[in-house]
TrEMBL record:
This is Glycosyltransferase family 1 protein. It comes from the Bacteria.
Length: 414
């Protein structure tokens, strides 16, 4: 089976979405499919054993001129005109030029007749999907992967808001669910959630979760940062917290845990690794009186973060405070891959909770201080007995593997 993959970026250092996309592409190869990857990373990137083509940005066009002119005017005036432009046209001039660039790149493909065309994106881009809408010859083979709700109004609270050009964006996504052969989601709950907005996708939904990928690199040979002692009882949150993922209750629960277990103060750590967030001031202030809490200055290389996740006693998945979390976090497979216990903090209705199961012992609502403290204490007592805590979940290892991926795609009907 031949699959043409059209993707925003395969640079794993630029976002969690790119990491998830690269893991999926690599596992497609590992599952035995023949791949051709067209990517818009704006740089040459090679994936071992996979044919990759970097799509060039069109730099001699009226759209390119408009996008750069707008950018320069914004720099000078300090006024962002994008909301006004998106209200009028639905998208930015840059978006339109990027889509045109991707479409032109795809029209140059020769000597590769795909059985399926898979579009992957990051954040709220969906540029590859927009490009495929303009190539109707591939609609009957189109696997449209939808990693997050779209547009922003379709997000659950507290993420939802009506953005400029909302109706244009909604009409655009209706076309995706209408024209594609199948709509792929990383999460069952996300598929059901989006079905409430796009009922025309009914019968097309396929669940392809974010993937585990065991690289050949020996993770043990990668040096962890000097601030991380693998011999400590490390509770690690890796990744962006954004404004909606509130860690304050976790920090307070950890502080109470230390107060009740004073012996743990010499070797228990709560670490936050990732980009800056709106909670940095709180964490920095807390560090002044609680040295066991650590916040990285900024983003760290992916391999270093993976090495820390492998060496941590506990990995944290922190979700937003709200009624439902339909997302499958990009780091969920990384956490499962480590086989270390996950401290899951999120709503009752959550894809992560659904996968871990109703009986999973270390789940809590984000604001339940007593329950979080109790989980930390139980994990710590187990760690004292056996420093190498293991969460043995062969069911999830299979669900996130190339074998399950192959089984799912082979069963699709053209």
């Amino acid at each position: 089976m031949r699959i043409l993959v059209v993707v925003d970026s395969i640079n794993i250092e630029d976002s969690s979405g790119s990491k998830a996309n690269v893991a999926l592409i690599r596992n497609l190869k590992k599952a035995g499919f023949e791949l051709l990857v067209y990517h818009y990373s704006r740089k040459k990137i090679n994936l071992d054993g996979i044919a990759c083509v970097s799509i060039k940005e069109i730099k001699f066009s009226f759209l390119y001129f408009l996008s750069r002119t707008q950018r320069e005017i914004s720099k000078i005036t300090k006024i962002n005109s994008n909301p006004k432009i998106e209200s009028l046209f639905g998208f930015s001039f840059t978006f339109f030029n990027d889509v045109k660039s991707i479409k032109k790149g795809l029209m140059n493909i020769q000597n590769f007749q795909p059985d399926w065309v898979l579009t992957l994106s990051i954040a709220s881009s969906f540029r590859p999907h927009k490009a495929l809408l303009g190539l109707p010859q591939w609609h009957s083979k189109w696997l449209a992967y939808v990693h997050d709700p779209y547009p922003m109004h379709s997000y659950p609270r507290p993420y939802d808001w009506v953005e400029p050009g909302h109706q244009f964006k909604r009409d655009f996504f209706w076309q995706i669910t209408e024209k594609s052969k199948y709509v792929l989601y990383p999460s069952k709950i996300l598929s059901e959630w989006m079905g409430g907005y796009y009922y025309n996708q009914y019968g097309k939904e396929i669940i392809i979760p974010h993937q585990i990928f065991n690289e050949n690199k020996d993770i043990d040979s990668i040096l962890v940062p000097t601030f991380f002692n693998p011999n400590d009882f490390n509770i690690l949150h890796a990744g962006s917290m954004m404004d909606a993922r509130n860690p304050i209750t976790l920090v307070v629960a950890f502080e109470l845990f230390l107060a009740q277990n004073p012996d743990a103060k010499s070797h228990a750590k709560l670490l936050f690794i990732g980009n800056k967030s709106s909670f940095d001031t709180f964490i920095r202030d807390k560090q002044k009186t609680l040295s066991q809490v650590f916040r990285s200055d900024d983003y760290l290389p992916f391999q270093e973060v993976m090495a820390m996740q492998e060496a941590a006693a506990v990995n944290v998945i922190l979700e937003a405070i709200g009624p439902i979390s339909p997302f499958l976090p990009g780091k969920f497979p990384h956490c499962i891959q480590t086989q270390k216990p996950i401290l899951l903090l999120g709503p009752y209705y959550s894809e992560s909770k659904r996968l871990l199961g109703e009986e999973y012992p270390y789940w809590s609502e984000v604001n339940d201080i007593e329950k979080i403290q109790s989980h930390i204490n139980k994990l710590y007592q187990s760690w004292l007995e056996n420093k190498n805590l293991i969460m043995n979940r062969p069911d999830l290892m299979y669900y996130l593997s190339p074998k399950y991926l192959r089984k799912t795609l082979i069963e699709l009907k053209p």
